[in-house]
């Protein structure tokens, strides 16, 4: 496994944890609170909107540390949204591969 593959494997690991929380809820889990929130998907989408704005502001302010931090939050919440909609990371990878061709 190359270094870049190892770095990206964390996305699969996090996605697997999110899927596990979806199917095996854990009390006081942040992921479970998002997935089981009484507002449904709206709470997840609200977080994606919030993290998107924070990422854009970090880029605008040219703050590398904040860009990495906020992008990580955004990607995490996108992973939760994908899991909530039963979309596998492989589907995203397939779509990106199609676009690369």
Automatic annotation (TrEMBL):
SUPFAM superfamilies (UniProt xref): all-alpha NTP pyrophosphatases (SSF101386)
Localisation per UniProt entry: Cytoplasm
BP GO annotations: L-histidine biosynthetic process
Gene name of the record: hisE
Family of this protein: Belongs to the PRA-PH family.
Membrane-crossing segments per the record: none
Pathway(s): Amino-acid biosynthesis; L-histidine biosynthesis; L-histidine from 5-phospho-alpha-D-ribose 1-diphosphate: step 2/9
Keywords of the record: Amino-acid biosynthesis, ATP-binding, Cytoplasm, Histidine biosynthesis, Hydrolase, Nucleotide-binding
Listed name of the protein: Phosphoribosyl-ATP pyrophosphatase
Protein EC: 3.6.1.31
Coarse class of the protein's main subcellular location: cytoplasm
HAMAP family: HisE
Short name of any one Pfam family annotated for the protein: PRA-PH
Molecular function terms, GO-annotated: ATP binding; phosphoribosyl-ATP diphosphatase activity
Lineage: Archaea, Methanobacteriati, Methanobacteriota, Stenosarchaea group, Methanomicrobia
Catalysis performed (reactions): 1-(5-phospho-beta-D-ribosyl)-ATP + H2O = 1-(5-phospho-beta-D-ribosyl)-5'-AMP + diphosphate + H(+)
Record's GO cellular component terms: cytoplasm
């Amino acid at each position: 496994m190359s270094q870049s593959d190892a770095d990206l494997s964390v996305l699969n690991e996090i996605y697997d944890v999110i899927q596990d929380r979806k199917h095996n809820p854990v009390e006081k889990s942040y992921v479970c609170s998002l997935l089981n929130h009484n507002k449904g998907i709206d709470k997840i989408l609200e977080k994606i909107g919030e993290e998107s704005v924070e990422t854009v502001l970090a880029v605008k302010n040219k703050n590398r540390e904040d860009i990495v931090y906020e992008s990580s939050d955004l990607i995490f919440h996108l992973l939760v949204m994908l899991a909530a909609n039963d979309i596998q990371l492989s589907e995203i990878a397939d779509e990106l591969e199609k676009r690369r061709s």
